Amino acid sequence: MPPRSAPTARQLRLGTELRRMREKAGLSIQDAAGRLGINRTHITNLELARFGVSEERVRALASIYACADRAYVDALVAMARERKGGWWEEYRGHIATGGLDLAELEYYAESLRVVELMFLPGLLQTEAYATAVLNETVPPWSPTELRRRLSHRMKRRDILDRDEPPPCTFFVHEASLRMRFGGPQLMRAQLESLLEASTRKNVTVRVIPFEAGGFPVSGVSVTYASGAVPQLDTVQLDSAHGPMFLHAETQLTIHRAVLDRTTKVSLAAAPSRDLIHGIIRQL
């Protein structure tokens, strides 16, 4: 397979999992290479995602590493089977890599849990609302850049329209419902769209009211994407410098607990819709 100039986050994750599997088996790179009869550089390149890895090679490595978790190995094999890039590749070179990796993460997620504080979730934004939010960027985007980022954001929403869309739970803070991006009329249309989305069978919207006070992720927006097996879950955090992706076992455990606590402080689906209706009446 030809070398990659810029591995995606998912390709890097596959390499990371191969390294974790090797280290768990207590084998060095030299040991693994010797058992396969290949150069140790080849193992390093696979673990750094510099090259693709075949399904057969993944299973061979799993056998050498004595990994008995069949579901986990099958999930890694499925990742190795992915040869073509997704729709987001047409934006490569025009949009920051973190945005492409987020679209990839959402596309392959088995389920999503999203916590948003000041903005409504990107997957539920109307075009007008997204435009108003993007127009707040400093320095401002050029018209061409704005159209490109808006197109990318709108295409991310397509995962909700699949024949078998992933279950998604969106925790939105009351502050994000009351921020009037684009003015009252635009915000009213956005909130009505949010209510409509909440009626989808795969979408749950839960509001974190002001009365809830503080909660564990009150300082950052979070996306928790479930993989085919729990070991392949990923947490994405927003930062001033772009998305951060976490998948160490301890990090996943902490964020599962954080989201459990967030669930407890948020309103259930029906009271959340009632609160959104009330805010719409005030606009």
From TrEMBL:
Gene3D superfamilies (alphabetical): lambda repressor-like DNA-binding domains (1.10.260.40)
Residue stretches making up the HTH cro/C1-type domain: 18-73
Coiled-coil regions listed in the entry: none
Record's signal peptide: none
Domain of life of the source: Bacteria
InterPro entries in alphabetical order: Cro/C1-type_HTH, DUF5753, Lambda_DNA-bd_dom_sf
CDD domains the record matches: HTH_XRE
SUPFAM superfamilies, alphabetized: lambda repressor-like DNA-binding domains
Protein's UniProt name: Helix-turn-helix domain-containing protein
